[in-house]
Write a structure and sequence with these properties.
One of its GO terms (molecular function) is DNA binding. This is MarR family transcriptional regulator. It holds the Pfam family MarR_2. Keywords: DNA-binding, Transcription, Transcription regulation. InterPro entries: HTH_MarR-typ, WH-like_DNA-bd_sf, WH_DNA-bd_sf. Helix content is about 65%, strand content about 5%. The protein is mainly alpha-helical. The protein has one domain: Winged helix-like DNA-binding domain superfamily/Winged helix DNA-binding domain (Arc Repressor Mutant, subunit A). The protein has a two-stranded antiparallel ribbon with strand order 1-2. A hairpin with a 7-residue loop joins strand 1 (about 85) and strand 2. Helix 2 (about 40-50) packs across helix 4 (about 65-80) and helix 3 crosses helix 4. The longest helix has 25 residues, at about 100-125. The chain is elongated and about 65 Å long. The termini are far apart.
């Protein structure tokens, strides 16, 4: 088998894995609550859990979305009783966002899900030799750089 055939054998599974990951990222789950949560919602809960009492501006920055989008997302999470909005004690107009007990449950269960996923991935890669793992690492960064560049080019 020549180099092009071998390279294709690497690229095709990578593309399939990427599509499957994108599909996984579109699925919903309750994360131990009575609410079906979309990925964007649980990712927002995750950031609020990482940054308790965060502001809308900071939350938007963490999520890399506009403040308007963050506001809409928080409104959805308030309706689902996952977060509350209160005024920051040091300001009359600055809002802070806090997880409710239901939000804490979703946050905790999502963290457990991520740990479970990581453990499963580790079990897949664990049998590989150090050289094989180093080879994967070596191609990961240039691949990531290529994708970032393509996203940037399309965003113009």
């Amino acid at each position: 088998m020549n180099k092009i055939d071998l390279t294709t054998q690497v690229i095709e599974p990578f593309e399939r894995i990427n599509r499957l990951y994108q599909e996984l990222e579109q699925t919903t789950d309750t994360y131990g609550t009575d609410e079906l949560l979309h990925p964007s919602e649980i990712h927002t809960v995750e950031e609020i859990g990482h940054h308790p009492k965060t502001s809308l501006t900071d939350l938007a920055e963490y999520l890399r979305i506009t403040k308007g989008s963050a506001t809409k997302m928080v409104q959805r999470l308030v309706k689902k009783a996952l977060v509350t909005k209160t005024f920051a004690p040091d300001s009359e107009n600055k809002i802070q966002i806090i997880l409710t007990s239901k939000g804490e449950i979703a946050y905790k269960n999502h963290r457990q899900y991520l740990q479970h996923l990581e453990n499963q991935l580790i079990s897949i890669y664990e049998p590989l030799s150090d050289q094989e793992l180093e080879g994967i690492i070596r191609i990961s960064q240039p691949t990531e750089d290529l994708l970032k560049r393509l996203i940037q080019e399309r965003s113009r």
